Amino acid sequence: MNHTRPAVIDLYKRLLFAASQIPGNPSHLSKEKVRIAFRKNSHLESHEQIKTALSRGEFVLKEIEALISLHKYRAMKDRYTDDKDF
Amino acid sequence: MRILVGVKRVIDYAVSIRVKPDFSGVVKDNVKMSMNPFDEIALEAGVKLKEAGVATEIVSVSIGPEKSVDILRTALAKGSDRAIHIQHDENVEVEPLAVAKLLKKVVEKEQPQMVLLGKQAIDDDACQTPQILSSLLKWQQATFASKIDVSEDKSTAEVTREVDGGLETLKIKLPAVVSCDLRLNEPRFANLKAIMAAKKKPLEVLKMGEMGVDTENRIKVLKVTEPQKRQGGGKVADVNELYDKLKNEAKLL
């Protein structure tokens, strides 16, 4: 069981960092959501279950990153492009 | 081929800007700061060129107060090899001309084949630094790039740039100054391993006063104000009132 521990911590830290950048939400609330999600799965024992949870976490992280870059792109496009349908 | 990338520390794009009560500028204390989004794009362009085997080294340079180090560490985490920090005191505004002169000094020392910059910073929106730098260096320039192709012998580059109503493709001789527009690429997120590795990458700190460059401000800011607030709309009860308003208030009829 122990050899998944570094991977879990790595994912946890990356998620915390990404959560702090979600536009609109106060960062401490988003971070708390990450903590709750990890605490919910803290009882997991079997290797298989942990792997599934990890891959789900990776998926969520990708989604958050996509959300942040899209928000930034849109903000920049709104501010600096005159031609709206370009 | 070495590439120099300029990055600026600005107020984060998502923060709502507040003007100081005395109209001398905007509030910068306790406000989230991050890398200028267009500089992120420039950095990503440099890193992509390195990954394609065109460039060998990416050097990031930032001119700013002590805390700009954070931005340079981010740049290092995103794939830059070295960083140079030209430090000045807090609350000093450096004008595009001075920035270009400082960058020229760095260029003379580092001898890059290409300087990649964001098209403009989202705080002062000057959009001048790349242009001034290219004329100071007497290099060719390609501004608002949305695509960069470097030729195989690395002596020229084809840059597609966004102009009013279309795209324009320029062939420029290297070394050159290229400023990056929004649609050039999508900046990446640094992973944890890269962030940790960035702490060990070399970062050179120089003092702005010791660069031997005239950085005196030539522009005086008279007043900074917020944009006019939009006036809300109103409801009309019936057609007569609408007609009355159109005729007397809007003077359309």
Account of the protein in words:
Chain A: This is LYR-motif-containing protein. Chain A: InterPro entries: Complex1_LYR_dom, Complex1_LYR_ETFRF1_LYRM5, ETFRF1. Chain A: One of its GO terms (biological process) is respiratory electron transport chain. The complex is a heterodimer of chains A (about 90) and B (about 250). With about 90 residues, chain A is mainly α. Chain A has one domain (about 5-80). Chain A contains three helices and no strands. Chain A has helices at about 5-20, 25-40, 45-80. Chain A is elongated, with a radius of gyration of 17 Å. Chain A starts with a helix and ends in a 6-residue tail after the last helix. The mean pLDDT of chain A is about 85. With about 250 residues, chain B is α/β, with parallel strands linked by helices. Chain B has a single domain (about 1-250), classed as HUPs (Rossmann fold, 3-Layer(aba) Sandwich). Helix content of chain B is about 25%, strand content about 25%. Chain B has six helices and eleven strands. A nine-stranded mixed β-sheet of chain B has the order 9-8-7-10-6-1-4-5-11, with helices on both faces. Chain B has a two-stranded antiparallel ribbon with strand order 2-3. In chain B, a hairpin with a 2-residue loop joins β8 (about 155-165) and β9. In chain B, α2 crosses α5 (about 190-200) and α3 (about 95-110) packs across α4 (about 130-135). The chains are: A mainly alpha (about 90), B alpha/beta (about 250). Chains A and B meet through α1 and α3 of A and loops of B.
Annotation keywords:
heterodimer, A: 86 residues, mainly alpha, 73% helix, B: 253 residues, alpha/beta, Rossmann fold, nine-stranded mixed sheet, two-stranded antiparallel sheet, 11 strands
The largest sheet of chain B has its strands arranged as 9-8-7-10-6-1-4-5-11
Q: How many individual domains of chain B? A: 1
Q: What is the CATH topology descriptor of chain B?
A: Rossmann fold
Q: Which strand-content bin applies to the residues of chain B?
A: 25-35%
- Count of separate DSSP helical elements of chain B: 6
Query: How many whole angstroms does the radius of gyration of chain A measure?
Result: 17 Å
Give the integer mean of the pLDDT values of chain A: 86
Oligomer: heterodimer
Backbone CA Rg of chain B = 22 Å
Q: Biggest interface and its residues per chain?
A: A-B, 19 and 13 residues
Largest sheet properties of chain A: none
Poorly predicted regions of chain B are none
Distance between the amino and carboxyl termini of chain A = 52 Å
Share in helix of chain B: 25-40%
